[in-house]
Specification:
46% helix, 6 helices
Length: 147
């Protein structure tokens, strides 16, 4: 079985690359998808629909255009990894985790221990909480084990 892994959340570090490299190194049967990780491109996703005078409406249109991608990829994934970084609050990642929970999609949260409390509900619905990409790779090795 080829696993479809959706990568959600923080875009300021190389955690995605670490996971994909770890999966490749271990020969895991996995393909990876993600939201658009270019911040400017994501913010401008709705600009094709016309210029807005108010930021709210620009953000609103871009969020809807981005949701076409994220909802479709989450619906098609077998498992999601949801990364919360320490530099910015990733409200979109929390929303993605909620979509996973609502759809019954298993997900793993990836974040430092110092934000356990604000993420207690998100972690509570997760199948696992990891603090490093290496731990996530170990979980994927276990669940994707081919015998």
């Amino acid at each position: 079985m080829q696993w479809n892994v959706y990568l959600s959340g923080e875009i300021h570090t190389d955690w995605r690359e670490q996971l994909m490299q770890g999966a490749e190194k271990n020969g895991l049967p996995a393909s990876f998808t993600s939201a658009v990780t270019n911040h400017e491109a994501s913010d401008a996703a709705g600009d094709v629909l016309g210029k807005e005078k108010e930021n709210f409406w620009r953000d609103h249109k871009s969020a809807k255009v981005n949701a076409i991608r994220t909802r479709t990829l989450i619906e098609k994934c077998d498992i999601a990894i949801v990364r919360f970084g320490d530099k910015y609050k990733q409200w979109n990642a929390a929303f993605d985790a909620g979509i996973c929970a609502a759809l019954g999609k298993p997900y793993i949260t990836l974040h430092d221990e110092d934000i356990v409390h604000p993420l207690k509900e998100v972690d509570g619905a997760a199948m696992a909480w990891a603090t490093t990409p290496e731990q996530v790779v170990e979980i994927l090795k276990y669940v994707m084990k081919v015998e």
